[in-house]
Amino acid sequence: MNKYILFVTLSLHAQVYGMVVDTAKVELEEVNVVTRRPGTMKMRSSVMNEDMITGKELLRAACCNLGESFTTNPSVDVSYADAATGAKQIKLLGLAGTYVQILTENIPNYRGAAAPFALGFIPGPWMQSIQVSKGASSVKNGYESITGQINVEFKKPHDPEADQVSANLFYSSTNRIEANADATVKLSPTWSTSLLAHYENETKTHDANHDGFLDIPRIKQYNLWNRWAYQGDRYKFQLGIKAIKEERIGGQTAARQASSDEAPYTIGIETERYEAFTKNAYIFNAEKGTNLALILQGTWNRLSSHYGVREYDVKQRNAYASLMFETAFTEQHSISTGVSYNYDFYRQSGYIPLEKESVAGAYLQYTFNLNDKLILMTGIRGDHSDVYGTFFTPRAHIKYNPNEYVNFRISAGKGYRAPHVWIDNYHMLASNRVLQYHVPADKKMDEAWNYGTAIASYLPILGKTLNLNVEYYYTHFHHQMVTDMDTDPHAVQFYELKGRSYSQSFQVDATYPFFRGFSLTAAYRITDVKTSYKDGKLREKPLTGKYKGLLTASYQTPLGIWQFDATLQLNGGGRMPQPYTLYDGTLSWNARYNGYEQLSAQITRYFRHWSIYIGGENLTNFKQKNPIVDADNPWSNSFDATMVWGPIHGAKAYIGIRWNLPQVTKD
Predict the structure, then answer these.
(1) Within a 13 Å sphere around the CA of 645, how many CA atoms are in the beta-carbon half?
(2) Which residues are CB-contacts of 430 (< 8 A; sequence separation ≥ 6)?
(3) 3-state DSSP assignment of residue 258
């Protein structure tokens, strides 16, 4: 803004209020006018259909962990996997989270034995941003992405904006306590390190529906991470070491145990996880983006559990390596190529055979950019598994910008995933269904094609920009491990697909800043997911909502002191698996469940280096009635805690404090 205009304005105000201004002594600094950017943004420059959930968006709700970070996001659904353990699962494009690749800073992570509770292993205050990529993704990170990728970026010690110290304390009406803290030390202009710590404890016994089972399990978790970074002119290096220990206790309450002559039905789950990674990059030519990078990661994960008399233990060891080279030949042509290696080893309890797989692969990705008007990215990777043989993964993306107001995107690509029946369906242990699976002589990977199209528009209306997005995705499976809960209502059958299996997802969403500090987002999605079962019939996939509506509003006062956020979700109904008859002659559940609404809200008061927030979740107080089937008879074959389609606890209030001490800047 022009200094002369500011000076004249200041002089006029001084005259009005009787002040005297010495024009010879007035010296004004340059002023930057800053507007409030939306917390969730469509990444306009990306050839892929990617949403960026910024750190500011994560502050709009409690966001205690990754699973609670999608409250205001219309694309990702998060629900309970069962009504006994508190495990959460995500869905993207109507399909389960097993078909979504989870990345941490672009490293494949939280696979296999970590997957059932992975959404609770990433604390919200540690995250800097989340990128959600829909449909076929880049071939750089492997072949496992079928419906998309979720990449988490953490706080980094070498970032200029990294705080010296920050902390977050949280308490909820369910007696959940959380404490998070991180500290960063700039050892030199090139070396830095940080320590991140997380503690949570669900301290209270909850049984709001008086069925004798804990609605929320008792959870205690310790999570620690130390990372180092070296940022030279050409060579860059990162090293990180993580450790997680968690204990979950569920099942019958002490009062129900005391009033019953039967042995108590208890649930105990213990997790230990250790992880180490290193990133190395050498930049040959910064202008052309020519660099060579090496990523190494190793993890050890142990899950030990019992559900009544059922016991299941699994230990997983994983090693991952990736060597990548990138360069731009010209402004229009660039390539990325590399090789990778992944090793998995599973030792499971009982008579389950050892599972191990070694996969080596290579990829080549080419990008053509015509003045940012037309971008074409094609990639192919080939991998060889010592279990499944050799397979190829082609993917392609096209982005076209006819003008500054609209972007068109088209994508197509294949994805694969090795099914691990027992750990993939771990939540099924929370029922007394018989698990039936015969390992076929010729095991096949899950294999699917995904096609998508999206239109993102940026329309100037009344001096502001309306962001309007329309997208459609179709996923078609060639091979799939089917989970069948219909053929035998007292069993879960696993077998390979014989017939069709697909998912269709159509979504439209719009965001508009109606006035200064206030923005509103509205979204609606329709989902159609069907699978062929043993009897040859193509059926709607059970426990999958047909639609989702979302309305989320955010208002921040002009000086940024107060912020008010509210989100309303409309969750559509769906089909239930085939019901069975209970001992009293009633059906275990209805053939379908109805839709329901959920409301969440939060108020935040900002101070210079700290803020306090208070809010509530599920303020509509909607609860699924009797989410545990035949809870009075946990040892019968009718007992089932996996038929969850809605919230299992009512309204919850919370309060929290955030505090930060910025780095001291030197002039």
Answers:
(1) 25
(2) 82, 83, 84, 85, 267, 307, 640, 641, 642
(3) helix
Q: From CA 313, how far away is CA 224, in angstroms rounded? A: 24
Mean pLDDT confidence for 220-240: 97
Domains in the chain: ranges and CATH: 40-661 (2.40.170.20)
Radius of gyration of the chain (CA): 26
Owner of token pair 């409030």: 36
Give CA–CA dist 356/329, Å, rounded: 40
The label of the residue with tokens 């306090």 reads 612
Place of tokens 């009797």: 626
pLDDT digits (tens, 9 = 90+) for 540-585: 999 999 999 999 999 999 999 999 999 999 999 999 999 999 988 8
Closest Cα to residue 122, out of 185, 175, 13, 196?
196
> For residues 618 and 525, is the Cβ–Cβ distance under 8 A?
no
Pair type for strands 40-42 and 518-532: unpaired
Given a contact cutoff of 8 angstroms between Cβ atoms, the answer to whether 277 and 234 are in contact is no
**Which residues make Cβ contacts (< 8 Å) with residue 325, sequence separation at least 6?**
291, 292, 293, 336, 337, 338
Task: Quote the strand ranges of 533-625, DSSP E.
Answer: 538-540, 547-556, 562-571, 574-575, 592-593, 596-606, 610-617
